[in-house]
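At this stage, I wrote out one protein's amino acid sequence and its backbone structure tokens, and that material follows here:
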Amino acid sequence: MLGVVERIIGVILVLAVMVDVFLTVLYARVGTRGLARFGTGVISERVATCVWRAFRWAGTRGKRPNDDLLSFAAPVIVVLFLAVWAGMLTLGSAMLLHPVLGSMIRAPTRPTSTDFFTALLVAGGNISTMGAGGYQPRTGLLRVEYVVNALTGLSILTLTLTYLMQVYTTLQRRNTLAFKIDVMAGSTGDAAELVAGLGADGHFSAGYTQLAELGAEVVAQKEAYQFYPVLFYFRYRQPCYATSRLALMLLDSVSLMQGGLGGECDWIKRTAAIKQIWLATTGLVRMLDGVYLPGGNQEQRAATPDDATLDRWRRRYMAALRRFAQAGIATTDDAEAGFREYVELRVRWQSYIEVLAAHMAHDLAEIDPATRG
């Protein structure tokens, strides 16, 4: 009876690993509704959440976040994914083999050890395709089980290695996009500088091409988070690589353009590139909010800004208009109406940026220096 229970537990462990790898690697869809709620995996999602909470707790004990410590969280999560999947698969396979070790599975040229550590050795060698250490099954059913274990181990190993390679390739693209936006704004963290560079001397013709490229790249990044949820936990010392900074720069640029441009520059506000950037970036921050952040999955986090916030936004808006004028960009004739439009747009995304920055232990003044400075 104990042997039967042990084999049942082994089957459950193996199936749990297969389901988790399927959801994490192959299902490739995260969301807040339906099956997409499990797109981050079941076991792997718990591992990632617990590891990040532990690192965040340890990394925020001082007056300032320990950026170096926090940067190790994502690599540790990736290593634990491998360790948990391999460990559970080996343990489950060992529990399947242990009850029949010495009877239906034997070593042909020496006495057969029947302890559980031998079962782990046989199972590990079998699922890693390195061989089962000379232990051979004596029945047809066990031979089939050996083949299934080997195929399962080989499939999971191949999928995991391929997944990791793709994660780091996508991470490099994400970081490249973030750094690209940062240098386009002169490393100031100010979206007004980004817009001023795109429309220097009032000419957005060349800048439109760059906006279209940014729109396509942010669409790709939004989908990358759907495929590789672990990307969320990669956090670096430099705030320019933060997803909250990337999203703020793009959303603030669109908001300033919609509320601040006028005259011969008004046409840029109605282009497909602007719509693409807005919809893709708001979709990204809302998806991250709903899937990863405490209290997420809200249709709208927006709240009416208080007087102090409105005052900061007004100073930010007026400074942006002055920067546009310096760059030769035509601005709106009605600054008050433009400010109201800017506030209306900013209210839609500001709270998402704040909670995202806070969850990743970033100082909001570093993420949004143009408004907080």
